[in-house]
């Protein structure tokens, strides 16, 4: 855990380098985040989405922050949140006893890849309904049937072809 936090702190320090290169920083960060949090971590998507914004709207920004400063601030927030997560919850993929733990991001990513946003929201609404597990299962089965059997099969295929799953079968 200490090594991971140290590596993440190094990423934060690199944001202050005189010759900072956003794309190089993003590449290194994605590799490190994938190693620590897994290939399907939402943090990777957040890092990949950091871009300089040269739109006319941003040029009118009077905050005084440069495009680089805004990118660095966002990057720092992502990495510092990752450090806080490790310090608070421990390393992902391990429970309190150091045993393997199920990767929820893997399932969420598979669903995001195969469902429309409205379908994803419908599934989430069912899961958060507060009903009994059996009632939730029945509603999920019914909803997935409505979406089509191919959707369920594609979600499962998406999960099973993930490198982490495939290499551990």
Please tell me about this protein's structure:
This protein starts with a helix and ends with a helix. It is mainly α. 69% of the residues lie in helices and 0% in strands. It is elongated and about 55 Å long. The chain has two domains: 2-89, no CATH class; 104-166. The mean pLDDT is 83. It has helices at 2-14, 22-37, 42-48, 56-59, 67-89, 104-114, 117-127, 133-147, 149-160, 163-166.
Salient structural properties:
169 residues, mainly alpha, 2 domains, 10 helices, 69% helix, elongated
Task: Please provide a brief summary of the model.
The chain has 10 helices and no strands. With 169 residues, the chain is mainly alpha-helical. Helix 7 (117-127) runs antiparallel to helix 8 (133-147) and helix 8 (133-147) packs across helix 9.
> What is the CA-CA span between the terminal residues?
26 Å
Count of helix runs: 10
Envelope shape: elongated
Helix/strand-derived category reads mainly alpha
Strand content: under 5%
Question: How many domain regions?
Answer: 2
Query: Mind telling me the C-alpha Rg?
Result: 20 Å
Number of strands: 0
Mind describing the biggest β-sheet? none
In helices, the fraction of residues equals 55-70%
Pick out the low-confidence regions: none
- What is the chain-wise order of helices and strands? HHHHHHHHHH
Could you report the average pLDDT, rounded to the nearest whole number?
Answer: 83
List the helices and strands and how they pair.
Blueprint lengths: L1 H13 L7 H16 L4 H7 L7 H4 L7 H23 L14 H11 L2 H11 L5 H15 L1 H12 L2 H4 L3
